[in-house]
Amino acid sequence: MTASIATNQTILVVGGGISGMTAALEAAECGKQVILVEKTPVLGGRTARLYRYFPKMCHPTCGLEINLRRIKQNRNIRLMTMTEVTAVTGSRGNYSVTLKVAPRFVNENCTACGKCAEAVSAEVPNPWNYGLDKLKAAYLPHNMAYPQRYVIDPSIVGTPEGEKAKAACPAGAVDLDMKDETVTLQVGALIYATGWRPYDAAKIQPYGYGRFKNVITSLEFERLADPQGPTGGKILRPSDGKEAKNVAFIQCAGSRDENHLRHCSRICCMASLKQTQYVREAFGDEGKSTVYYIDIRAIDRFEDFYQMVQKDATVGFVKSKVARIAENTENGNPILHGVDTEGYHRYAVEHDLVVLAVGMEPEITGVKLPDDVILDSSNFIEGSKDQGMFGAGAAASPLDVNRAVQSATAASLRAIQVIRKTASTEAV
Amino acid sequence: MTTANQMAVERYRNNFLKEVEANVEEGHMVKMCMQCGVCAGSCPLGPHWTHSPQKIFMMIRAGKRDEVLGSDSMFMCTSCYNCMVRCPRQLPITHIMHGLANYAHRLGLAPKGQPTRDFATLFWNNAIKKGRVNELMLTLRHYFRNGLVSGIKEALGMQSVGLGLFMAKRLNPMEIFGGHGVKDLKGFHAIIAKAKEIEDRKKGFTA
């Protein structure tokens, strides 16, 4: 990767989740040169960490595989992993972008044989399971990882553990002398597909996330249900490993709240409705899900999914935003306190496990972006004043996968227009 | 029915929300409530009220004028502000509850014999007399509110506290003869009268 391959005919896509992959592919398949940069060592973003999609309840691996195949086949896309954008200067059609590439400590000789992971004994929290378990300090992020190349965690570099990984590698791929690199590129247009992160649930003090072990986030629940997750797909609660058959879902955990996120995150209602079906899948009629909600916002055409879940006898609905959670210290059960809106009944109900349907916060919150970029009041990207930089997917608005893909395609088209315009101006 | 109450009924007819918006402090925020229930569940006195703030706000919108203005709930608020800091829409719930209490009081619809309301009235009458609270008289009047026998009983029950306060020079028995006041008592009363006049005018109670 050198600066010479990029010109002002190139589109830079920031972020390699479902939106970034889509935006990059749409432009590349139109014959445009695309550079796709991703902060983590792999593509797939948050989508790769879901168990199932709504409403068809299919697995994300399927859609991801198709996209990865498209990327592998396309010569117009250059992928840079472990890379962050540190500065953007210039204007529409002529940006200069500075990228910082973090060392992976494994070069392209890696065959993903896994001998380095066998040799190493140090462990680090597993970011792909939201820290619910640990993985070896020499690791392949997950089975769908692309590029299929191991990563050495910086914490073991310069230690005997790091040397063990190097000695174990039969391909000579471990390079512990790799350093941070800075690269400057010229590009014509930028697409920010920087995605979202779950709102920090510990900030919602009355819900006790972080204080009570059996209060988890919807994303952690997603990992519990996933066969590749920390429990091998069994819904076991964190405090004692007991099967969580009586699960409460709390909607608007952070969203629609002027003290936290002022926007509606849109996906969480559907996500919780979907997750009630994980409980059913695991325990059949013995499972019990209760959804505590202000109002169910089954976006777009998903009302039928909501009706399907309403008919499920194992799923109950309580119209109330839970006021606070306490813990039964004898059995570790969270106790939900509140008042329901349908009759104003005061309740105090015990559940095995509480899942907070946390809101979506733009990943770029707190990051310094070019002055030209316009954000809305929740830090979602609206675009740039010079109309050469665009937001795509969950960076632009709280969207589910389906709508993120649509948004990314739209952003890609706008970027292509910028490139076309630049080319025609230069021809004159 | 008081005259002010009659006027209010005639003016707003069945639109109690409009009446609240026009006459109650922060009343215009009532319509912002999305009925999530966090205030009701967060209130430390919650189980002891007839109507939680959530319910009061819905009743206002439903036009339940008599029930709302006759409710004791607003007088149960201890101003802990738990509801207000947790409200997802940042309604000034505590202020609205106080505003409702004040409006009901002015219209003469507030519940009679409500303990916190009675004590507040006692405190106010005591404080404006001399510009300083006469604590001895305040406690005595409070203890003897239900007559002589129960008053003596209640006072005896608190005698160790009273004695402790006396020993620590925090309670002066001489206050029984009227107590001390502010320097310019006449000026103080003029200020209170003027403030009442302004507030009455603002809230439309001049008639």
Write the layout of secondary structure elements.
The complex is a heterodimer of chains A (428) and B (207).
Chain A: E1 10-14, H1 18-28, E2 33-37, H2 60-73, E3 77-80, E4 83-91, E5 94-101, H3 115-119, E6 123-125, E7 134-136, E8 138-139, E9 151-152, H4 160-168, E10 181-187, E11 189-192, E12 196-198, E13 215-217, H5 218-225, E14 246-253, H6 268-283, E15 288-293, H7 303-311, E16 315-319, E17 324-327, E18 334-339, E19 346-350, E20 353-358, E21 360-362, E22 373-375, E23 381-384, E24 389-391, H8 401-427
Parallel strand pairs in A: 1-2, 1-11, 2-3, 11-24, 13-20, 14-15, 14-20, 15-16
Antiparallel strand pairs in A: 4-5, 5-10, 6-7, 8-9, 12-21, 17-18, 18-19, 22-23
Chain B: H1 3-12, H2 16-23, H3 38-42, H4 53-61, H5 65-69, H6 73-76, H7 82-86, H8 93-107, H9 115-130, H10 135-143, H11 148-157, H12 159-167, H13 185-202
Helix pairs in contact in B: 9-10
Question: Explain this structure to me?
Answer:
- The complex is a heterodimer of chains A (428) and B (207).
- Chain A has three domains: 3-102 and 180-195 and 363-427, FAD/NAD(P)-binding domain (3-Layer(bba) Sandwich), CATH 3.50.50.60; 115-168, no CATH class; 199-360, 3-Layer(bba) Sandwich (FAD/NAD(P)-binding domain).
- The longest helix of chain A is centred in the C-terminal third of the chain and has 27 residues, at 401-427.
- In chain A, helix 1 runs parallel beside helix 2 (60-73), helix 1 packs parallel to helix 8 (401-427) and helix 5 packs parallel to helix 6.
- With 428 residues, chain A is of the alpha/beta class.
- Chain A has helices spanning 18-28, 60-73, 115-119, 160-168, 218-225, 268-283, 303-311, 401-427, and strands at 10-14, 33-37, 77-80, 83-91, 94-101, 123-125, 134-136, 138-139, 151-152, 181-187, 189-192, 196-198, 215-217, 246-253, 288-293, 315-319, 324-327, 334-339, 346-350, 353-358, 360-362, 373-375, 381-384, 389-391.
- Chain B is mainly alpha-helical and 207 residues long.
- Chain B has two domains: 3-111, Fumarate Reductase Iron-sulfur Protein, Chain B, domain 2, CATH 1.10.1060.10; 115-200, no CATH class.
- The longest helix of chain B is centred in the C-terminal third of the chain and has 18 residues, at 185-202.
- The two termini of chain B are 15 Å apart.
- The chains are: A alpha/beta (428), B mainly alpha (207).
- At the A-B interface, strand 18 of A face helix 3 of B.
